[in-house]
Amino acid sequence: MKYISLFILTIASLHTEAQVTSTLEQESDSLDKADLLMIDMPSYSISYPEGWKIREGCIQEQCTIISPTDTIGGYDTYLESINLTVNELSNASYTAEKYANYSEEYLPQVVTQFRVLNKAKLSENSHRLIYTGVKNNIRQVWRQFYHVKDGKVYIITFSVQQKKYKYYKGMIKPYLTSFKFK
Q1: 48 vs 37: CA distance, rounded Å
Q2: Mean predicted confidence (pLDDT) in 141-161
Q3: From residue 24, how far is each of 1, 21, 28, 29, 35 by CA, in Å?
Q4: Which of 69, 159, 160, 162 is packed most tightly, with the most Cβ within 10 A?
Q5: What is the 3-state secondary structure (H, E, C) of the chain?
C-alpha cells in the first residue's frame, strides 16, 4: 500500500511540474498588459520594452524605438532598435510573401555578407524574415516582419549587433509580435 501511495504522489508531482513548465513557457511569449508601453497609431498599435525611447518625430508611417545602452559584451557602440515603416504598395495584389521575397532580393545591395537565417509565413497577410550581415561596419541580425493590409505594407524591423542577438532574441519577441491592426 505504501508503494502505491508513493507511486500516485510521484505521478501527481510530475503532472504539477508539467503544468508549471507549460505556464512558464506561455508567459515568456506574452506581455503583462497592465505594464505595457505602447505606440498607438490610428491604424495599428505595438508595445515596446520599458526603458526604450521613441525617437523624436514618430509618425504613423515612420517610427523608431531605441534601446538604452547596455554592457553586454563590453562598451556599447550600437543601440538596438525597433523600426516601423508603412509603405503604399504599387499593386493591390502584392502580398506579404511577395514583399518578403522582394526584400530578400534587394537587401544584399545594402547589407554586405547578407544571409537569410529564417523565413516564415505567419499568416496569409504576414511574413517574417530573419537575416544577418554587415551594415555600417557592424555585424548585425535583423528580425523583420511584413504585414499587408489595405494596399499598404507595415514593416517592423528589429536590429541588433550579432554578438548580442542571443540575449535580445527571447526578450524582444513578445514586443515584435504585439503588433496589431485596428
Answers
A1: 6
A2: 97
A3: 35, 5, 6, 9, 18
A4: 160
A5: CHHHHHHHHHHHHHHHHHHHHHHHHHHHCCCCHHHCEEEECCCEEEEECCCCEECCCCECCEEEEECCCCCCCCCCCCCCEEEEEEEECCCCCCCHHHHHHHHHHHHHHCCEEEEEEEEEEEECCEEEEEEEEEECCEEEEEEEEEEEECCEEEEEEEEEEHHHHHHHHHHHHHHHCCCEEC
CB contact at 8 A, 162 and 141: yes
Q: What is the pLDDT of residues 3-12, one digit of tens each?
A: 444 333 333 4
Query: Tens digit of pLDDT for each residue in 111-147?
Result: 999 999 999 999 999 999 999 999 999 999 999 999 9
The pLDDT of residue 165 is 95
